[in-house]
Amino acid sequence: MNKKNSSNSGFTLIELLVVIAIIAILIALLLPAVQQAREAARRSQCKNNLKQLGLAFHNYLDTHRVLPPGYIQTATNNSEWTWVSQLFPFLDQATLHAKIDFNKGAGQTQSDPANPFYTNFLVTSQPLSVMTCPSDPDSGQLLAGILARGNYGASNGLGPLKYIGLYISAGQSWSNRANAGPFEVNSKTAARDFTDGMSHSVLASELRKTAGTSDSRGTMHYPEGPFVNFDHNPNSTTADSVRNAFCEDLPGMPCVGVFAAFDSRQQTQSARSMHVGGVHALLADGAVRFVSENIANQTWRYLGIHNDNQVLGEF
183 near 82, Cβ under 8 Å? Predict the structure, then answer.
């Protein structure tokens, strides 16, 4: 009579460790692919947001025959509401637009319901999905407790963006600065003004925002926020020039304080994103291109000015 083999058929410790090691390797290989897929989806949504802004700009242009002003400034009203609020009716935000009291400056908004400048708080504090790139999540923090931020800035050409109130209040004429983009204070840029061609001019590009409460970059409804300048390449290591109190110098978005208050404004901020290698840019013809951070600087500068009549290089 044969005796049955009574050897143990379970895993040995060494075999178990080998299996665990193989699983760990597979997970290590899979995670980057998952992260890349997620970033690809976020990047696609970021691009789509700019397409929606492009449609809104063109619908505004069709309705008013000009693009919205970069921001509003008059002799009697220190309004400073930006292009973002002007686009509301064309971004399915007519309800928010109707709440705005344009007679009260955006920067004067207060969060206290008992304050007479509370009127606009429900507008300026409201984050907007179409203005938020998923690759740069919104912390929910507000500049000075009143102003929400976004990830897209309109083209202001070569910096700096200036404050002109002192000129207006003194009754002096204001000549638009040289090399300005299509969005300037009180601008009324028409289609005919794009002498370089709409496919060779940037309307808007990406911005990065901080998680803190004291950095103005990306602020949607105040001039020291929703603009990009083209002096330096996308994702430049050169520091942005901002107000002293509104600078949070951070990796990937360096800044330096160069002016003290709104009436000495000298703001220059570069296009920046959380994407590897560059930023999305909305061209005036409605197309959205991913522009390499290694683009020839002169080409990038020409893209930011819609009427310089310069020949573009490849981009």
Answer: no
Do residues 291 and 278 make contact, with C-beta atoms less than 8 angstroms apart?
yes
Q: Which residues of 201-211 are buried (b: 16+ CB within 10 A; e: fewer)?
A: bbbbbbbbbbe
Give 10-residue mean pLDDT values along the chain (315 residues): 52 78 79 67 93 98 97 78 97 95 91 93 96 90 95 96 69 67 93 95 96 93 97 98 95 95 92 96 97 96 95 82
Dist CA 21 CA 299 (whole Å): 50
Q: What is the predicted pLDDT for the residue at 8?
A: 53
CA count, 13 A, side-chain hemisphere, 315? 31
Non-local (6+) Cβ contacts of 120 within 8 A are 99, 100, 101, 104, 106, 109
Q: Tokens for 203? A: 């309307």
How far apart are the C-alpha atoms of 286 and 292, rounded to whole Å? 19
Contact assessment for residue 109 and residue 121, using Cβ atoms and an 8 Å cutoff: yes
Give the 3-state secondary structure of the chain.
CCCCCCCCCCCCHHHHHHHHHHHHHHHHHHHHHHHHHHHHHHHHHHHHHHHHHHHHHHHHHHHHCCCCCCECCCCCCCCCCEHHHHHHHHCCCHHHHHHCCCCCCHHHCCCCCCCHHHCCHHHHCCCCHHHCCCCCCCCCCCECCCECECCEEEECCCCCEECCHHHHHCCCCCCCCCCCCCCCECCCCCHHHCCCCHHHCEEEEECCCCCCCCCCCCECCCCCCCEEECCCCCCCCCCEEEEHHHCCCECCECEEEEECCHHHCEEECECCCCCCCEEEEEECCCCEEEEECCCCHHHHHHHCCCCCCCCCCCC
Give the span between the Cα atoms of 229 and 308, in whole angstroms. Answer: 15
Query: What is the pTM (predicted TM-score) of this model?
Result: 0.86
Residue 157 φ then ψ, to 5°? 70, -145
Distance CA 231, CA 271 (A): 10
